[in-house]
Amino acid sequence: xxxxxxxxxxxxxxxxxxxxxxxxxxxxxxxxxxxxxxxxxxxxxxxxxxxxxxxxxxxxxxxxxxxxxxxxxxxxxxxxxxxxxxxxxxxxxxxxx
Length: 97
Hints:
By secondary structure, the protein is α+β, with helices and mostly antiparallel strands. The protein has two domains: 1-35, no CATH class; 43-96. The protein has three helices and three strands.
């Protein structure tokens, strides 16, 4: 039997434990079936979340530096991100039903 850290991808047994401690917890066969209930998140949700974070950073920098145009740009980008996230959630809901 071969033990590998990438056993789940290769179908080998996977070691679960800390080998540096000298204690071996168990050897469990790698899962061969896909996870049930696993859903992929819509790309619009991910992109929207990133855009909201970037907008929040711009807004904070604009407030800290008293740059009203950068602050306004950050607020707009946050709003765009929120809309894109909502759109992605709606697409996920349609896909689920």
